[in-house]
Amino acid sequence: AAGHAPDEATARSILVFCRDKLAAYKRIRRLEFTELPKTISGKIRRVELRRKEESRTMPPTPGADEFFE
Hints:
The structure is a single chain. By secondary structure, the chain is mainly α. 38% of the residues lie in helices and 0% in strands. The chain has one domain. The protein has helices at 8-21, 46-57. The radius of gyration is 18 Å and the shape is flat. The model has no long low-confidence stretch (mean pLDDT 82).
């Protein structure tokens, strides 16, 4: 959140809040603090975020040494 340092205490407080308020299957498993890509005017570049997320979740493509029939 704006104005909060991305440190272990912040992460712990977010996780504790989620543990207290959410069912176990809804809880987050991992926190990642990163800078968001922004335009010159300061708006978040959503298209770039989508591309990054899609590339992270895409299944690996078969390599040259793998063979599929």
